[in-house]
Amino acid sequence: MEIIDFDIRGQICPSSLLVALKEVNARADNLRQGKVKLRFITDNRDATTTIPESASNMGYLVLVTKQEGCYIIEIAGKKSSLPAA
Amino acid sequence: MKTEKNKSHEDLLRENQELRKKYALATQYIRQKVNQLLSVMGTSPLRAEELDDETLIELDPISIVSDSFVQVLRHLKEMNEELKDAHDEIAAIFESAGMGILVLDRDLRILASNKKIEDQFQIDRGTSAGRPCRELICHRDAASKCPASNAVESGRSCQQDLVLDERHYHVLATPLRDKQGSIARVVIVYMDLTERILAQEKLKKSEERYRDLFENSTDLIQVLGADSSIRYVNRAWLDTLGYREEEVPGLSIFDVLHPECADCGPEFKSVVCGYKEGRFETTFRTKAGDKIIVEGNVSAINEDGKFVGTQGIFRDITERKRVEVLIASEREQLAVTLRSIGDGVITTDIQRNVVLINKVAERLTGWKQSDARGKAITDVFHIVDELTGELRTCPVDRVLETRLVCELEGDAILVSRDGSTRLITDSVAPILDKNSSIVGTVLVFRDITDRKKLEERIIKSEKIESLGVLAGGIAHDFNNLLNAIVGNINIGRKFTMPDSEVHKSLERAEKASAKAKELTQQLLTFSKGGAPVKKLAAIADLIRDTADFGTRGASVRCEFSLPDDLWHAEIDEGQISQVINNLVINAVQAMPQGGVIHISARNVAVKPMELQELKAGNYLEIIVQDHGRGIPRDYLSRIFEPYFTTKDSGNGLGLATTYSIIKKHDGTIDVESSPGAGTTFYIYLPASLDNARPSDRGAMFVPHEKATGSVLLMDDDSIVRETAGVILNLLGYKVDFALDGNGALEMYKQAKNSNSPYDVVILDLTIRGGKGGKDTIKELLAIDPNAKAIVSSGYSNDAVLANYAVNGFAGIIVKPYTMDELGDELRRVLSSK
């Protein structure tokens, strides 16, 4: 499975959300088919709420993990497997 | 167009301002819509400083959000489809569930119900919706509680077992809450337990039934685990083996198996360990240590194909065993008693068939038990009349008719299977059962053949005994007469010239008298077999004279082989002469056509154990051999029995007397015979190595040196007194006479008192009507302990003669005696101290 990383550090909501949604929309089919997984690195705390909520409503699996000075938000299709949230 | 071109700068400015205003408004609008969309997406509105208008247009957030919406919708649609599937699944489960399910609102009105509810409670689902469940299901009154009402009140699941329409239900009510958390609905599940409960009740009843059987059984029941530990036992087991119920868990079957039961241990072990099943007998041990013999079955218990233990049922057969042993031993005892009883016993059933026949009856009838069983009694037991020889009716018939004990009238002859006959007496008794019904008969009979013969023998023997008494009496008188004859011939011979005819006549008369004397001796021994009066004697002449005498007048002659150096023997000459005479007579009779009898004697030294019945020592062996018809082998062992004879003329006493005489001489007699070849008798007599010359049996008178001394002669016979008086005078003795014991004692006392005592007293043993020698000697010795007495008798049967010294006599003289015999004995007595 292809993993695509996006570094959206420095951006805050709503632009970080819009960027994330734009990337998700662009790869909707591959995501659903489990061919690809997106990984966003953000330092905006709001984004850790808005991105997972939006992605969940769109039917994706989302996993947020906190790392040194940033958060990693992983988005994958339902057929994919993500480490348990 | 001119107008256009002619537009003023002011116009342009104004237009520009208006356009800017519109653009601002448009951008404003876009920002507003973007914010509106972003708020739908749940994020914060756009900030002017973050996105300028141009970036906004370039980013195209509306398009982004709209694309995202498409995905949201698509996701929702998928979810709806999943939900619908889930709903359909639940509905199907709900409908097809094996238990009744009701969905109620919080007022317990029916919202939904499944098919099972319809079946369980006969509810029409078309009309049941909206109605209170109690009206349709449990019919309780509104105030009472039920799991559903409890669930609504408590907010928790509630359950209860209920009986509805005679069926058992486990009812579970679960409240469902709405979004606000308040209870909106209740789901009730009805699990029908009826079948299970009925099955349980059935099982319980069945278990109770089996428990009753288990506990009330008088047999011992046990259930063991695979490790041989005892798991369950019944009451009978506890009672029999003396354990309390609480002690059982610690017990193993090997605590209960008796250690003495060595055989059953391994076998039982293989059973309790499940290797072997089946019926067997073993021994248990009670807690107190008593032995209990049990018989029973053990079978393995398997669960899921795995051996988990055994179950066994046993019966205490200790008492039964004891009784069996008792009965067996009693039966054995009876059988042995019956078999070994001395009389013949035959039992029959009421059909007159033989049931049992004992050993004696087997022998007498010739029928073995195995052959006789089941045969008619008349086939086995044939009796004919002793006198007429006619077949007699079987007494069994009479007993079966009369039911009374029946004795055979008179004796009968039993004819055995092989035709031989025995004289019997018999009796038959009925065998009665406890109800006094006749179940058979018992026939007891006795072989009286031998008894009859014995009776006849006794009669014969009594006859002979009386003859003997008669003969003894005659012999006594005859001896006295003979004594006088012999004495007087002796005297006559003394006064004749040896060469004269008178002298020779007297010599012949003397020899004949000696034979007459032997004849009386023989007569006496025949009659009573008197004790031998032993004297040292040379045997050769005795044998020769006796044998010649015995063959006189017969066509048989004797050949002798009698060496000169034969040892002497202490014998009663008369008796040994009788023995030789008997053997010779037998030999003569065995050779009616005539022949030769070989008679030989020799000295033998018998070593220890060389000849049966004989002690080691020196013996004279006398062999008398004929070549006659011989004695059948069967008779050989019996010929010495009294009254056994194969001769029509014999009295059966000859060889018996012979045997008796030889035995009394501490000797033995043996016989060899082969039919047709002849018979040989061997006699062994103890030899005496005393070299003293035995008294000369010769009858010739040899004068002795004249004797001196006084003799008192006691005899009741005047002839004896006179003859003896002459002989004693001739011998040189002075003699006085007494007629009986008292006279003799009186005379002895007088002579003693007058200082002329008698040197010797001759006492006749038997004095008719007066005191005899035996009584007289006692008193005589009382008067004079040094008195010397000689006992005289012609009746040698009395033990006094054989043991004369013991009785106090110094010597013995047997009538009739010759002058020499009397002289020798007197000299011997007078010279003794």
Q: What multimeric state do the chains show?
A: heterodimer
Helix coverage percent of chain B: 40-55%
Radius of gyration of chain B: 70 Å
Shape of chain A: globular
Approximately what portion of the residues of chain B adopt beta-strand conformation?
A: 15-25%
Architecture (CATH level 2) name of chain A: 2-Layer Sandwich
Care to describe what's here?
- The complex is a heterodimer of chains A (85) and B (833).
- Chain A is an alpha+beta fold.
- Chain A has one domain: Translation Initiation Factor IF3, CATH 3.30.110.
- Helix content of chain A is 33%, strand content 32%.
- A 4-stranded mixed β-sheet of chain A has the order 1-2-4-3.
- In chain A, strand 3 and strand 4 form a beta hairpin.
- Chain B has 6 domains: 82 residues; 102 residues, Beta-Lactamase (2-Layer Sandwich); 106 residues, PAS domain (Beta-Lactamase); 107 residues, 2-Layer Sandwich (Beta-Lactamase); 231 residues, Heat Shock Protein 90; 122 residues, Response regulator (Rossmann fold, 3-Layer(aba) Sandwich), CATH 3.40.50.2300.
- Chain B contains 28 helices and 29 strands.
- In chain B, helix 20 packs across helix 21 and helix 21 packs antiparallel against helix 23.
- The N and C termini of chain B lie far apart (226 Å).
